[in-house]
């Protein structure tokens, strides 16, 4: 890295730390609602941009260009369908959280089922998202290893420390406003890299798209009968794509504290709708840009005779380090740090919220002391940040041999989140499913998913891999069928849950919420 690149990057880091310091001084932080939800008064527009960058910024920045470089655009169908699924599931779940004035979605589970289900789902979420945050840090190591030659451990420690610092200082307001800054920096950086790659390819954009999607790199697989099969050894099929899209988006809308915490930080359900629509409308061109950058860099290196020997996960970053002018490279690296930190801060913040609201409050706290809780929350946040750094360092060792691309690695680690989504689905959709049904089905689903993950690992070692999208399906399908059977066979509806299912809501019922002094 040149001095210009370092100065650009340091300037960005100083800006985000300054944002955290500003909100630490000027924004109220006297209550849990202030620190965790921005006082429930944040604007829907800025929250919408924050929502995009939160989900975009981790695996996507490595995975999507890497997928486009390695395999073309066949899997882009997943990202075209995702906004549709996100809108659908928003209307299925989010109304309940606003009606209850929740801090976390797991509060709903206690009202609908009992404390055991709340604890089970929140523990599962915490475990999954802790690995997710560690993957953010690991992805940052991949970025800077390719673009700047930094040792992975150095990158993980620096990015982790800065991310922890500004969210510790400013709470939810700092998280959301730095996300807006990060979205702008990232978008400009990716547009610039795409333009540089196009400039180096003869024939311009049209020629680039034609060559980048030739043969199996395009949509020709959609005409192959295997694309419509359920063969687990076929890397990409229509049914796997549909299942993964709907399972993921159902999780984000139902049990993912990272996403839901943003929606709950606006003042009303109506503003949350605006937030969701804005985020999903802007997601389409943002994802298209990432796919385009991967294709553009592939064609650039194809012309140079280097594409066959390159790792797609690092190709964009190799391009930046070797082809971009220093100022542009610095802007791009700033955008990468922006994207990484946006999910890092959201992840640590949401994990802290879950620990404080779903573990400390119901099981530990004896007295209502808001000042003590705020100090404890900040201490927990720092502890989680350190733990995330340690897990990321472990992943840096493991993940290299785990999967062909970073996308496959991420799918492997996230294979359990659909089980959480199914818990919420039967909570809002059925008045007959009990907490005992949920606990039994979840345990069996988790056991099956674990066995499939082991099989995936074994088949990878044998050189005959199972599709990474298939890993999610067997456990979720078994859990879904078990709970569906319970809902159909049990004749008596449960009492004491009025207003907590969709049938009650559309029938005029609303969940009641006891007032709480935070």
List keywords for this structure.
about 525 residues; mainly alpha; Sodium/glucose cotransporter; 20 helices; about 0% strand; globular
Describe this structure in words.
By secondary structure, the protein is an all-alpha fold. It has a single domain (3-396), classed as Up-down Bundle (Sodium/glucose cotransporter). The protein is built from 20 helices and no strands. It is globular, with a radius of gyration of 23 Å. The N and C termini lie far apart (48 Å). The model is unreliable at 401-405 and 514-518 (pLDDT under 50).
SSE layout:
Layout: H1 3-26, H2 32-37, H3 44-56, H4 59-71, H5 76-100, H6 106-112, H7 115-147, H8 152-199, H9 204-212, H10 238-254, H11 257-263, H12 269-303, H13 312-323, H14 326-364, H15 370-398, H16 406-413, H17 417-429, H18 435-462, H19 473-489, H20 502-506
Helix pairs in contact: 1-8, 1-14, 3-8, 3-11, 3-12, 3-14, 4-12, 4-13, 4-16, 5-10, 5-12, 6-7, 7-8, 7-13, 7-14, 7-15, 8-12, 8-14, 8-15, 9-12, 10-17, 12-13, 14-15, 17-19, 18-19
């Amino acid at each position: 890295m040149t001095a210009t690149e370092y100065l650009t990057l340091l300037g960005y880091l100083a800006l985000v730390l300054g944002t955290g310091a500003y909100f630490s001084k000027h924004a109220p932080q006297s209550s849990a609602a202030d620190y965790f939800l921005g006082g429930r008064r944040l604007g829907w527009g800025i929250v919408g941009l924050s929502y995009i960058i939160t989900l975009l910024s981790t695996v996507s920045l490595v995975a999507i260009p890497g997928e486009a470089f390695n395999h073309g655009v066949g899997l882009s169908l997943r990202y075209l369908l995702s906004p549709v699924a996100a809108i659908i599931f928003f209307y299925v779940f989010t109304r309940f959280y606003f009606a209850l004035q929740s801090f976390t979605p797991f509060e709903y589970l206690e009202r609908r089922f009992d404390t055991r289900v709340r604890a089970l789902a929140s523990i599962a979420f915490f475990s999954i998202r802790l690995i997710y945050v560690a993957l953010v840090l690991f992805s940052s190591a991949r970025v800077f290893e390719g673009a700047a030659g930094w040792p992975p451990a150095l990158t993980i420690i620096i990015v982790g420390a800065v991310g922890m610092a500004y969210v510790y200082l400013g709470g939810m307001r700092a998280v959301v406003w730095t996300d807006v800054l990060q979205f702008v920096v990232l978008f400009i950086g990716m547009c610039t890299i795409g333009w540089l790659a196009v400039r180096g390819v003869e024939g311009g954009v049209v020629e680039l798209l034609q060559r980048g999607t030739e043969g199996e790199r395009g949509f020709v697989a959609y005409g192959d009968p295997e694309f419509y099969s359920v063969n687990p050894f076929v890397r990409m099929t229509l049914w796997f794509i549909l299942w993964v899209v709907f399972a993921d988006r159902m999780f984000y809308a139902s049990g993912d504290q990272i996403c839901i915490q943003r929606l709950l930080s606006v003042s009303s359900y109506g503003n949350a709708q605006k937030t969701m629509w804005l985020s999903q409308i802007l997601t389409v061109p943002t994802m298209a840009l990432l796919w385009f950058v991967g294709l553009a860099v592939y064609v650039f290196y194809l012309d140079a005779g280097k594409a066959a020997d390159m790792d797609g996960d690092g190709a964009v970053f190799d391009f930046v380090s070797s082809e971009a002018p220093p100022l542009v490279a610095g802007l791009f690296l700033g955008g990468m740090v922006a994207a990484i930190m946006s999910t890092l801060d959201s992840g640590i913040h949401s994990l802290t919220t879950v620990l404080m609201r779903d573990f400390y409050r119901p099981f530990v706290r004896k007295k209502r002391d808001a000042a003590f809780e705020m100090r404890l929350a900040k201490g927990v946040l720092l502890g989680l940040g350190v733990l995330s750094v340690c897990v990321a360092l472990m992943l840096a060792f493991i993940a290299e041999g785990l999967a062909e691309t970073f996308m496959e690695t991420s799918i492997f680690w996230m294979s359990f989140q659909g089980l959480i989504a199914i818990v919420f689905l039967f909570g809002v959709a059925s008045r007959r499913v009990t907490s005992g049904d949920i606990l039994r089905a979840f345990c069996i689903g988790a056991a099956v998913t674990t066995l499939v993950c082991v099989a995936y690992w074994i088949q990878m070692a044998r050189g005959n891999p199972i599709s990474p999208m298939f890993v999610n399906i067997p456990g979720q399908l078994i859990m879904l069928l078990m709970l569906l059977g319970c809902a159909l066979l049990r004749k008596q509806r449960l009492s004491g849950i009025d207003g907590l299912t969709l049938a009650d809501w559309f029938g005029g019922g609303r969940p009641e919420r006891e007032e709480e002094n935070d």
